[in-house]
Design brief:
Strand content: 25-35%
CATH superfamily of one domain: Ribosomal protein L16/L10
Shape: elongated
Number of helices: 3
Strand order of the largest sheet: 1-4-7-2-8
Largest sheet: 5 strands, antiparallel
Number of strands: 8
Distance between the termini: 39 Å
């Protein structure tokens, strides 16, 4: 079985916290590794003329695999169109929220096996970044002559994210 859909985790509700008289059952012991490889790419110590950012139009959670997918698209387009020495790319959110999933059995007789689903704690499956309205997700710094290529690279990443976004 693969990943659940992004809409299962996109709402910004407070996660259920298990309270137990036994301390070891009251917290998450471990979680999956972060898939995001790099947060800063390109030339890091140069001052550029222009700054373009991808902003979220709504509050939601974005999973780490969606952020990595969008980052790969942006960086590949920037390298192909601008060149690796003419930009600085920055990922501005960090996936710190641990996502949990309670496995559900299906098939004949599953109604007797999967009881107790109200506020089920579940096992950690990944992480997500909590994004507020008008918060910057990605930023590209470049020169004025590469303005169009930078905007197109950010625009190509919007379908990879589960939220509506705008470029500023």
């Amino acid at each position: 079985m693969g990943l659940r859909k992004g809409k299962c985790y996109s709402r910004l509700t407070r996660p259920y916290t298990r309270k137990s008289k036994y301390k070891k059952k009251a917290f998450i012991k471990g979680f999956a590794a972060n898939k995001i490889v790099k947060y800063d790419l390109g030339v890091l110590n140069k001052d550029f003329e222009a700054e373009f950012s991808l902003l979220s139009k709504q509050e939601m959670q974005i999973r780490h695999n969606a952020l990595e997918s969008a980052r790969i698209v942006i960086v590949r387009r920037l390298n192909n169109n601008i060149g690796p020495k003419n930009y600085h790319f920055k990922l501005r959110v960090y996936p710190h929220q641990i996502l949990r999933e309670k496995k559900i059995l299906s098939g004949a007789g599953a109604d007797r096996l999967s009881s107790g689903m109200s506020q089920a704690f579940g096992k950690p499956t990944g992480t997500a970044a909590r994004v507020k309205k008008k918060q910057k997700i990605f930023t590209v710094y470049t020169d004025k002559k590469y303005e169009k290529a930078a905007k197109e690279a950010l625009k190509a990443a919007i379908p990879r994210l589960p939220c509506q976004a705008e470029i500023i």
